[in-house]
């Protein structure tokens, strides 16, 4: 009781007695029942980047997602990473680059038809981040799989980014728009569905697209350099975004849908890679470069918010998550 006078004690007891009795001591708050809007900002030099979640698709793992690795090995790897053995989580997150002069969106998510499966959230998260879709100047597409292009259209078919120049890889365009390639895809196959979806998205704007050279070594927008990372698809492209001395690499699908498995085991061939051998060659060359340069990498399918460094290990690579930054 030393240091507290009898008078002070009496005063505090007295004031406690006059607290309003209408405030409950243990207020029950309703559970939110859903996640908060998901976007994450960071700086690269003078550029401000925002990783925007399009959602997460959960898929039961009943067969191996890899062409050359048995399901048991996949499940053992998942277990090692404290993940469920029987389910895979596919994250999707496009990137927004504000260069100070232009707003550039890279990839567009799964689009409005996918909302039931937990994706298609990009427009809502963009809005939550305070960005008007009509203010986007440029949309850059990495490749033509549906989870990257379907968000170019609203549910009514109108353009989701009505004022944007849309830039697509020339090699990707050449492959997918070739009627011969389409005719060789079996009816109902994923390849045929991709061909059809590409035509749905691009048919009436084909003449307005800007086609870029992925391997030309030239920036396609100020500070945005494409890198040919083909293998996943014939024109698959990643980007190095740089401002001043800072750089981040946007890797799109170098490790396909479930990224972690194929970073740790680059020799495992994702089922989604169209050319498995080229995909592996690309993966090793690409991660060797990122590890050597200690470059930050944003993976479209990495766990949100997707920013990691790459460390080379004896058997492959390891993702080291970049620390969450509290201020810009
Ligand atoms: Zn993808």
What do these coordinates show?
The protein has 328 residues and is α/β, with parallel strands linked by helices. It has a single domain, classed as Metallo-beta-lactamase, Chain A, CATH 3.60.15.10. 25% of the residues lie in helices and 23% in strands. It has 9 helices and 15 strands. The chain has helices at 6-17, 71-80, 122-128, 146-149, 170-176, 179-183, 190-202, 259-264, 276-293; strands spanning 39-44, 47-52, 55-60, 87-92, 95-98, 103-106, 138-140, 165-169, 210-212, 224-228, 237-243, 246-250, 296-298, 307-312, 317-321. The strands form 3 sheets. Strands 1-2-5-6-7-8-9 form a 7-stranded mixed sheet. It is globular. Zinc ion is lined by residues 145, 147-148, 253, 300-301.
* Overall body shape: globular
User: How many strands appear in the DSSP assignment?
Assistant: 15
What small ligands are held by the chains?
zinc ion
Amino-to-carboxy terminus distance? 48 Å
CATH class placement: Alpha Beta
Biggest sheet descriptor: 7 strands, mixed
- The side-by-side strand order for the widest beta sheet comes to 1-2-5-6-7-8-9
Residue runs with pLDDT of under 50 for 5 or more positions? none
- pLDDT average, as an integer? 92
